[in-house]
Amino acid sequence: MQFHSFVFLVFAAVFFAAWYGLGDRPRAKQVLLITASWFFYGFAEWWFLVPFLLTGTLDYFAGLAMGGDPPRKKLYLALSLGANLGALGFFKYFVFFARSFESVAGADWVIPNIVLPVGISFYTFQSMSYTIGVYRGELPPTRDPLTFFSFLSMWPQFVAGPIERAARLIPQLEKPGRATSQQQWDGMRLISLGYFKKTVVADNCAPIVNAAFASPPPDAGGLFWWAIGLLFAIQIYCDFSGYSDIARGLAKWMGIDLVVNFNGPYLAESFKDFWNRWHISLSTWFRDYVYIPLGGRHNATRNLWITMLVSGLWHGAAWTFVIWGALHATYVTLERLTGSDRWLRGLAGNLVVIAGVTVGWIFFRAETLPLALDVTAQMFSPLSWSVASVAGLGLKPFVLLGGAILVWLGCRFWKERPVWNEPTLLRQLALALLLMSAVYLRGPGSTFIYFQF
Known about the structure:
Layout: H1 6-21, H2 26-42, H3 49-68, H4 73-105, H5 120-136, H6 145-152, H7 166-174, H8 181-214, H9 222-253, H10 271-277, H11 280-294, H12 300-315, H13 319-338, H14 340-343, H15 346-365, H16 369-379, H17 387-391, H18 396-413, H19 425-440
Helix pairs in contact: 1-2, 2-6, 3-4, 3-5, 4-5, 6-7, 8-9, 8-19, 9-15, 9-16, 9-18, 11-12, 12-13, 13-15, 15-16
């Protein structure tokens, strides 16, 4: 179910009417939350619930078993991780690896198409963080199934995050209370901004980017692809951070605080800093459950490369995603070797990060590796740059790029950023303007990008 669909607006209106109507009845609220979440998730395809319920139930009992039989908790953790990674591997990577082996072996196999359940990468990682946390002693096992499944299937962040940690979210769901007036205002602010990012910015960038990658013009050159790369950088940020904003805002209306998932990533002055600001809930997940267990700073370069390659593969079963992860591993490795994260700071460092990230987004967006390599070759071949091809894009791309540059300049150089903690009349009017823009200036509706992961 899409946040920007009419059916979702009806769903949300019914849910919040019931949620506030239940008042201070935590058990009833948990039942409502679980029922609504399963309806929300199974609305498009009911069978998506099957792998979720199977792995979720296993993790619930694995947590109980680790608490009741500590000597065997490593076995129970292995069963939990095996089931989660097995399900994720089957649905997401079976076809990819089968086709890769088929190509290497020169065979001609009949490989079935396997439909990927929406959001399986997100809820799998969230569930794994629970069993790993119980194994490490970071939290006690949750004995109440209603609390556990409220945590695992909370509908605002079910399919695209933020990826929550059990130790942080479960205490809020054990006895869900009333949203404070501050949470209601913050929720409205986040939802308004999220819808504006998604429908006005991301959905207006999408047709331009999609057309360029689907059918590149014959005179396309480096300038053309830099413009398209920057437009996709804007699109994916506004699409994904817009989703996270809406999810956090909806949760606040329930009296629940979700983690911040983005913190001005395009203001980063080093690639390490970029990953401290982009998709924070995922990058910290990989840090805590992959990078540090591998040894962390001990053999840091090796561990960094493994982590970034796994991160690339997490995003999609294609070599383009693997190379995207390898590119970012290269960026951070070069920073460490040259110390550029210390001496290349300020505006220069920020521009280097934006350029490097934009090149990476080409591999992230391109559907085939040859296309991605051809595009990046043109980007770094000034002799192929064609002003005419950029002019042929029309006015809209320049309006979007110009607006993004103005926002970037304002965030970069306006040190006293406004904090909208109080719902003044002027701020309420500003939010109303954002929502009106989301209705009247919206682009063609498109699925949230991260739903495919």
